[in-house]
Amino acid sequence: MNHTEKLTGWASSKLAEIISPQSSICYGVLMPGEFTPNGIPLIRVKDINKNIVNDEQIFLISQELDSEFKRSKVTAGTILISIQGTVGCVAITPEHLENANISRTIAKLELAEPVMSKWIWASLLSPQGQEKMLEETGGSTRASLNISALREIELPIPPLAEQTRIAQKLDELLAQVDTLKARIDGIPALLKRFRQSVLAAAVSGRLTEEWRSANSDSKSQHNSNMPVGWSQIPLGRYAINFDGARRPISAKERESLKGDYPYFGATGQIDSIDGYTHEGEFVLVGEDGANLLTRAKPIAFIAQGKIWVNNHAHVIASPTGHSNSYLAFYLNTLDITPWVSGSAQPKLNQKNMNEIPVFVPPPEEQTEIVCHIEQLFAFADQLEAKVASAKSSIDQLTQSILAKAFRGELVPQDPNDEPASVLLERIKAQRAAAPKARRARKAP
Hints:
Layout: E1 11-14, E2 26-27, E3 40-43, E4 48-49, E5 52-53, E6 59-61, H1 63-68, E7 79-82, E8 90-92, E9 101-102, E10 106-109, H2 117-125, H3 127-136, H4 147-152, E11 154-157, H5 160-204, H6 209-215, E12 231-234, H7 235-238, E13 240-241, H8 251-254, E14 261-265, E15 268-273, E16 278-286, H9 291-294, E17 300-309, E18 313-317, H10 324-333, H11 350-354, E19 357-360, H12 363-406, H13 420-433
Parallel strand pairs: 3-9, 14-17
Antiparallel strand pairs: 1-11, 2-10, 3-6, 4-5, 7-8, 7-10, 12-19, 13-18, 14-15, 16-17, 16-18
């Protein structure tokens, strides 16, 4: 038994049977040509974002081309479905894009009853609706959906009054989901600022104030700019430099030297090789590249064991008994722009790097600082993992809501509603009485 037969007043219909008699299911402009200032908006798959039309980068076509493809012009409320590229994106044409056109990668569904738009949108986006479209593409979301196959897709149709109740409930629930998403999406930025605050507190001595109070006889804990017992030393006088052992090897050469030893460049490991240039624990500092200014990745990082380092990363180490991890954390808190030369090809040469001032705590406090940082960063990492899990759950929540709507479980049925069969008969009569619209070509 079809599940719609169990629901009061529900029926089912092929998409072709609920289209406006003045329209047809069709795709749009084949070759849009050059951008035309003050032209007609052309909706493309890339303009459908999160199942709404985003017109921030809308393409404009000429009046002549728009007239040539007048059959694919859309009205407010027209359903848009991506049929090429990423198949199955669905959106409703907003009012401000009334009379826009569509590209050949999109099919339009102009419904005989415009108030059905929200229901058809939700049905096609539900897991069940997506599966129906996926079946027609041979099981691949990267294939194409034939117009003739799209016409034959069958969907459940609730009574019109129930569709209105479902639409209202969807608006309410999906708005709540969007609010949750916005809150969750903001957490990574908060965690980034948290880590930055931790590092700033660490290298200024604030993070270990209590530790110093418990482990120092001095009543005065700070001088003008750093805690008592700390010193400021130029990096070149503090750290030991091992740049002389670096050796660059081209990617082509490395193809014949594959091995188990990590090969490092300016921002981290880029390969594995069958030899090593250094052995021990080191702080690698990027010597050149855009990352020195963009800071998309840390500029300083720890490398241990037998490693090969090319000439794009400086190799340094803290003095014996001092912490390499503290030095790496410290360097990553700095704005090193004053020591970087060039903007098109930024470079931190050894001479400039050696001038960077380092706040140096006693070795025992360095260890304590690193311990505090790692504990707090581990806490942030745990939160980040929970955020990722929550985002996945929220994405599933949207699909769960749409699936419930498709099954008729989102709002109660009302036996007093006009049955959907009456609605479909009315649409059928309208279509039979109206002149037939010219059908689109068979496939995009």
